[in-house]
Design brief:
- Helices cover 39% and strands 16% of the residues.
- It has 170 residues and is an alpha/beta fold.
- The chain has two domains: 125 residues, 3-Layer(aba) Sandwich (Rossmann fold); 35 residues.
- The strands form two sheets. Strands 1-4-5 form a three-stranded parallel beta sheet, covered by helices on one side. Strands 2-3 form a two-stranded antiparallel sheet.
- The protein is extended.
- The N and C termini lie far apart (67 Å).
Length: 170
């Protein structure tokens, strides 16, 4: 049974996609149909050179092909978190959340996934509009205000249960 089909049959497929040199496929790989399941892809020379650092600079040891997961397979996941960090990924983040869904920027497809979370650092937001950054920071503040009281209640319950377990001392 193909891996992509098997993953659909499992209770749930959870994915973590990191926008790093090793996994640029979802950020910028165009011309690959979104419905493609798992497939083998020949890596570009740029990627091979970038990956050489993980193999002590020896190009002979660097894999030239990679097994990739199609976006269609990842879109079947219950939840997706995409981590985009660093100044070199600013354009990818911009295309992922500020532009519309576009076949040239595969990562933009996740705008249509109901439970996608984009996690990024300050450097990655440099190409975003100020209005966009303020919007998402505002969402984070509202979320924290809603969630913090729940954690406070839980912490008090834990403290109370731990204090009742302490042995009696004079």
């Amino acid at each position: 049974m193909p891996l992509s089909r098997r993953s659909k049959l499992q209770a749930g497929l959870n994915c973590l996609l990191e926008a790093s040199a090793l996994m640029d496929i979802l950020l910028s790989m165009s011309q690959v149909p979104a419905w493609c399941p798992v497939f083998v892809k020949t890596l570009s020379m740029d990627t091979t050179l970038a990956n050489a650092r993980f193999f002590d600079g020896d190009l002979a040891k660097v894999p030239t092909m990679a097994l990739t997961v199609g976006v269609g397979t990842v879109m079947d996941a219950r939840e997706v978190m995409i981590l985009i960090t660093g100044i070199h990924k600013t354009f990818a983040l911009n295309k992922a959340i500020e532009e519309g869904v576009n076949h040239m920027w595969t990562v933009s497809a996740f705008q249509q996934h109901p439970y996608t979370v984009f996690v990024c650092d300050e450097d990655a937001t440099l190409e975003l509009k100020v209005k966009t950054v303020k919007y998402f920071k505002g969402l984070m503040l509202v979320h924290n205000k809603l969630v913090d009281p729940l954690y406070s209640i839980k912490e008090k319950e834990i403290e109370k249960s731990q204090s009742s377990k302490k042995p009696y001392s004079d």
